[in-house]
């Protein structure tokens, strides 16, 4: 994070495994804390960024949700239901993740206690997982509709099962967050508490890296691969049929 001093390698101590950089101070005096453990320009930028995204996401997703609800009152469709779930997932991110990040950037340290740390750590990833998994549901639905049009029986039930699976998988994938994240007091500045993964993996940094990599893969990598496969298959199917028609 940028700062006005000469130290350019600032780290965020909310996620730092080694907290030994803080001065040995037991009083609540932030003068002795490193710049990244105090409110700085990086935190201010984070607040402005998340605030803008929160307003834009609220306007966009609430508008979409209202339009879909009005449409479903007249005639409901499977894809509309999936889009409603996607809008709800995005609003979970908007109203749970973003306010947390704004408040956390403002306070820098964690004041919410251990239970809230675990609960909010769960919801920090839940909405993101859910959005990705519902996008997978939509792509699979389009895949079956175009490449398997004759397999129409039970299509609505399949859509409901996919959505239910997306919600369940989001809970399962987010559950480790509630175990791994917890409140720790700084070993030197004992009044300074933070919601971190410190000590959750023992002394193995490799395990923490593996967990982070697996989180990214399940949250972004796997959904992206499935979505690309589905829409690439749809494209080639349409291209093949168009070519045969022209011939």
From TrEMBL:
PROSITE patterns membership: G_PROTEIN_RECEP_F1_1, G_PROTEIN_RECEP_F1_2
GO MF entries: adipokinetic hormone receptor activity; G protein-coupled receptor activity; peptide binding
Membrane topology: Multi-pass membrane protein
GO CC, any one term: plasma membrane
Keyword Membrane: yes
Main location: membrane
Domain G-protein coupled receptors family 1 profile intervals: 60-247
Keyword GTP-binding included in the entry's annotation: no
Sorted UniProt keywords: Cell membrane, G-protein coupled receptor, Membrane, Receptor, Transducer, Transmembrane, Transmembrane helix
Compartments it resides in: Cell membrane
An annotated GO BP: cellular response to hormone stimulus
Family per similarity comment: Belongs to the G-protein coupled receptor 1 family.
Protein name (database record): G-protein coupled receptors family 1 profile domain-containing protein
Annotated source species: Phlebotomus papatasi
């Amino acid at each position: 994070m940028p700062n006005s001093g000469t130290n350019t390698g600032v780290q965020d101590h909310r996620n730092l495994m080694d907290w030994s950089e803080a001065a040995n101070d037991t009083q609540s005096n932030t003068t002795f804390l490193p710049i990244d453990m105090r409110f700085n320009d990086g935190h201010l930028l984070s607040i402005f960024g998340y605030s803008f995204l929160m307003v834009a996401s609220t306007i966009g997703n609430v508008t979409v949700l209202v339009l879909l609800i009005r449409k479903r009152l007249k005639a409901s469709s499977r894809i509309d239901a999936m889009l409603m779930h996607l809008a709800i997932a995005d609003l979970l991110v908007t109203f749970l993740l973003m306010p947390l990040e704004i408040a956390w950037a403002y306070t820098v340290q964690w004041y919410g206690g251990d239970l809230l740390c675990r609960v909010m750590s769960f919801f920090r990833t839940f909405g993101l997982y859910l959005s990705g998994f519902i996008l997978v549901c939509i792509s699979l639905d389009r895949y079956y509709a175009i490449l398997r049009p004759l397999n129409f029986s039970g299509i609505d039930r399949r859509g409901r099962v996919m959505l239910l699976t997306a919600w369940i998988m989001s809970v399962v994938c987010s559950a480790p967050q509630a175990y791994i994240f917890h409140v720790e007091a700084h070993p030197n500045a004992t009044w300074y508490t933070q919601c971190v993964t410190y000590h959750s993996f023992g002394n193995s940094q490799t395990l923490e890296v593996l967990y982070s990599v697996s989180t990214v893969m399940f949250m972004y990598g796997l959904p992206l691969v499935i979505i690309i496969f589905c829409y690439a298959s749809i494209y080639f199917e349409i291209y093949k049929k168009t070519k045969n028609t022209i011939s």
